[in-house]
Amino acid sequence: MDPGGNIMVSSKTIGRLSQYRRLLQNLLGDGREFVFSHELATMAGGTAAQVRRDVMAVGHLGSPSKGYGVSALLGSIADYLDGADILGVALVGVGNLGRALLAYFVGRHPTLELKAAFDCDPAKIGRVIHGCRCLPMEEMARVVEEERIKVGVITVPAEDAQRVATVLWQAGVLGIVNFAPVRLWTPASVHVEQIDLTTVLEQAAFFARRQDKDAGKEVGR
Amino acid sequence: MDPGGNIMVSSKTIGRLSQYRRLLQNLLGDGREFVFSHELATMAGGTAAQVRRDVMAVGHLGSPSKGYGVSALLGSIADYLDGADILGVALVGVGNLGRALLAYFVGRHPTLELKAAFDCDPAKIGRVIHGCRCLPMEEMARVVEEERIKVGVITVPAEDAQRVATVLWQAGVLGIVNFAPVRLWTPASVHVEQIDLTTVLEQAAFFARRQDKDAGKEVGR
DNA sequence: TAGATTGTTAATCGATTAACAATC
DNA sequence: TAGATTGTTAATCGATTAACAATC
Question: Which of A86, A122, A192, A195 has the fewest CB atoms in 10 Å of its CB?
Fold first, then answer.
């Protein structure tokens, strides 16, 4: 069981650590030297115990009555999340969402480098969008292999997503963020993070509707 | 405790039901009459037991050896997720991501209606983007109240998100989808769905990096 | 010291998984 | 009937929460 020694840390934990990092960067900018677990908890929207557990997971120790050293904890989290090397990222599908993600991406991740974007629309190919060159779909496999790209972001229509994913992992990609509303099949060694924007809206709508109904009842409408 | 009788169903369950609905619509289009739990499970990326549990939650009964009637189950899920009335939605922040979401939204949700989009950029105000009129930020409270909008989507920069959220819930919004990387404070009666695009990318990168390292070890590099 | 927070351990909670009789 | 799936119940697993001694 678990031959590679993997999957000991949940995706949720990584997400929270990534949040803490951003919060700590802000605190560092404000000149804060120490921070308590409950402060981070309220900022990140969790509990103090959860923050302590996460911090312990990265092997950092805090000090009673002072809390956690901001810059030291930031370093510990960075060591944990990032590697020594820069990881290449490719974006596939330069539509509305793809362009939005390119804009989001620009200059935010010191340890991630967007190496290429791919699209099948001839009008987009060759153009530089948000500082990233748009290449034709046919070159995807070659470029991903040559540039040793390990992370792929899929923002193509649902019907093309699986085909793109297959090309990506066959070319060596190990982590995929998929915005297409389709379940992707990949080998177990390839991590897929599924983001379903349509579903998210329906979730919010469901709870809004129920709350609205309940409120109506209370008033006795 | 729990005076309104709420929060008996998790956000996860709603997300899965929303997925099933989409899958069932496809099956219906293909002319399929019945579907088994394990078929839905493989399509949605879960287990058969999970599908059965979710289906039971909406009060639908299947038949052994035939499975679930596609159109009947679709109806049950729609009854559960949707109400009789159409719910109004507002989008705040017509940047790259906002425009992408507007495009996503167009003509997909029969029970949700995008009533307005808001932005503070004078160049955008008055323009119609993907069939939705862009209004100035100052009119947000008034329009949301008048149109009885209950769902808000926030795609403004992090520093403006809390201010926008406060205006929204004070004007009667009960469900919020927040794409800004900030934790929002709202009353407990207002549901917030947090989507952190930056964090998602870091999650995928983390697992890709670890897998890459492990693969390197195996080869004995 | 008193007070608050830390890391650690035990208890609780929820969700997932497995087991099984009932049904077509 | 035999076979497969259903709804239902019990067992397991994991994560969260509570409790507590140690520390500054």
Answer: A122
Contact, B76 CB vs strand D, < 7 Å: no
Query: What is the residue-averaged pLDDT of chain B?
Result: 92
CA B178 to chain A, closest CA, distance in angstroms equals 10
A30, burial (CB in 10 Å: exposed 0-12, middle 13-18, buried 19+): exposed
Per-residue confidence (pLDDT) for residue A219, from 0 to 100: 59
Q: Does B41 touch chain A (CB under 8 A)?
A: no
CA–CA distance, A66 with A113 (Å, rounded to integer): 36
**Residues B176-217: pLDDT tens digits?**
999 999 999 999 899 999 999 989 999 999 999 998 887 776
Tell me the average pLDDT across B26-45: 96
Q: For B123-135, how does the pLDDT look when each residue is reduced to its tens digit (9 = 90+)?
A: 999 999 999 999 9
- Gap between the terminal Cα atoms of chain B: 59
Q: Environment class of residue B175 by beta-carbon count within 10 Å: exposed (0-12), middle (13-18) or buried (19+)?
A: buried
Q: Determine contact: A177 vs chain B, CB below 8 A.
A: yes
Distances (CA, A) of A44 to A20, A60, A119, B184: 7, 18, 36, 10
pLDDT score for B2: 36
- In angstroms, the CA B78 to CA B76 distance is 5
Which chain B residue is nearest to residue A21, measuring alpha carbons?
B199
- Going B134 to B135 to B136 to B138, the CA torsion angle's sign is negative
pLDDT value at A5 more than 70: no
d(CA B58, CA B62): 12
Interface test with B, best of A7, A18, A184 (most B CBs within 10 A): A18
A159 touching chain B per CB within 8 A: no
Which tokens hold the place of B101? Answer: 């979401």
Question: 3-class SS at B150?
Answer: coil
Q: Please state, as a whole number, how many other Cβ atoms lie within 10 Å of the Cβ of residue A106.
A: 11
Query: pLDDT confidence of A107, banded at 50, 70, 90?
Result: confident
* Chain A 42-81 residues in 7 Å CB range of strand C: 48-49, 52-53, 55-56, 60-65, 67-68
Q: How far is the CA of B47 from the C1' of C19 (A)?
A: 16
Q: A207–B14: do the CB atoms touch at under 8 Å?
A: yes
